[in-house]
Fold:
Amino acid sequence: MDKLKNQKVIEKSIRLLQQNYYTFEVDAKLTKTEMKNWVEQFFNVEGKGTNSSRIPKKKKKTSNLKLNTMGPKKMIVQLKEKYSIPLFLSQN
Structure:
């Protein structure tokens, strides 16, 4: 799936791993249900829920114009209790 950019590994996502939440950076057009279905099929697990948010970029200031640009989209997928997925995906 080319809409999945990478798995986010930051301090907050590591804490969420203990509660069976996995954080991914995805394409902005991807929906929650598409992401959940893809994770379930690819990793052979069952998802419990999905949360999404947009990561804001820093505001660019060019002369008198302030440009607000949106950053990448972050999705957090919660798996059912008996399931888990590998921490790192291969980065080729």
The longest helix spans residues 32-43.
